[in-house]
Amino acid sequence: MARFFVEQLPAEGGSCTLTGENADHAKVLRLKPGETVTLCDGRGTDCPCTVEGGLTLRAGASLPCPGEPSARVALYLAFPKADKAEHVIQKATELGATEIVLFPSRYCVSRPDDKSLAKKLDRWQKIARSAAEQSRRGVIPAVRAADSYAAAIEEAANADVPVLFYENEARVTLREALSETNAEASVARPRTSNACPYIQITLMTGAEGGFSEEEIAQAKAAGMKICTLGPRILRCETAPLAGLTAVMYALGEI
Amino acid sequence: MARFFVEQLPAEGGSCTLTGENADHAKVLRLKPGETVTLCDGRGTDCPCTVEGGLTLRAGASLPCPGEPSARVALYLAFPKADKAEHVIQKATELGATEIVLFPSRYCVSRPDDKSLAKKLDRWQKIARSAAEQSRRGVIPAVRAADSYAAAIEEAANADVPVLFYENEARVTLREALSETNAEASVARPRTSNACPYIQITLMTGAEGGFSEEEIAQAKAAGMKICTLGPRILRCETAPLAGLTAVMYALGEI
Known about the structure:
The structure is a homodimer.
Chain A: E1 3-5, E2 15-17, H1 20-29, E3 36-40, E4 45-53, E5 56-59, E6 63-64, E7 71-78, H2 84-95, E8 99-103, H3 114-135, E9 142-145, H4 149-156, E10 161-165, H5 174-180, E11 199-205, H6 213-222, E12 225-227, H7 239-250
Helix pairs in contact in A: 2-3, 2-7, 4-6
């Protein structure tokens, strides 16, 4: 079923018309009168609509989007090389991330200047939007950059479960980090409404060169839980998606 | 630490010389006398060695490779378009797959002929080898093709936990499939040796067009457990890696 993100949802029984990129997309899909499509406000609420003809829709009753996970997971990625960020943003959106924050770190090879970063962020946000439509998400993950490593860990450490994956950590597992904060217990919680309080989880991963020991000490001091992703060494574009998938499985979302 | 796959491991105290691609790789790394490297037989056993000089190594005692998971997970992928297979093979190797089998299915867009398939398999096997070295695996996943969908499901259904992920299945979860066969209990099992019996898990995923209803009925009849990967629709290159990661988390491997 076709899915369109709109600024505001129509009231039940009201009509609305697709515009801009949504109209272009709808023309490609050749919507037929009587067909059902879904409008979504990008904040977790869906509105099923019936095509009346052309680009005009008649709205049904809104409901919480079933594609939204029961936790808010933000990925914090050190700037990777080449087009790896695009790959991670697309897949992380499919897998249920709420926010994707890129940050500089000591061993980052890629250090975009302000002008190229603004362009990249614009492109990355479009990738997230398109992946959210395709995967039937109810929220388009916000993609943004942190000014510094210090700023990134300060923010990330505020979550209920703030995790940093480090290849030299062999002992502490993600399972332990989640159980400490009882995040896994939320598996038993029925998904009733998008209004119930969300657990906030942050997952932080390094660039190709990993983290320096000083950076790990700094993250620990800020309150990040330093965890392993297992004995296999994952590439910098694999690690965030593996961490995110594992969290989604732990939460009963996969 | 550098890692090389060899046909046969030297006996403890014996010496050996790196040859072929391993020699080329070692020259790039500029190994120094006294440095430690690891030889691996690709069947789960590691042998730490000391560089004596040039390409000559002195062997230490062999041991089970710590990078091998406690279950054998085979991925069965319907042939995807373009270079997606390369991507999945590289990441699946990092994440711990033991075997990757590609198969044709009704809605596959990509249908390589015998000649191009032989070339592709050769290339895919090299990608798996290189990813196994980088990620510190003890086994190079075998990459091969099944002749038909029927042949693929017949093989896949033989596993202890044979799972097929289907986007129209909303109810049965991977967690249920794993708990039915008590696979999750293996979390508690200490990793003592590579000789203990492995749980065999197969994870089957479709191509861009998904599976037909007839194919799902055929898989069910063969004994495959039809499962959901959650309410978000994953791309055909994301689904196998999400399934594999979730299994590895369930088994305590992540």
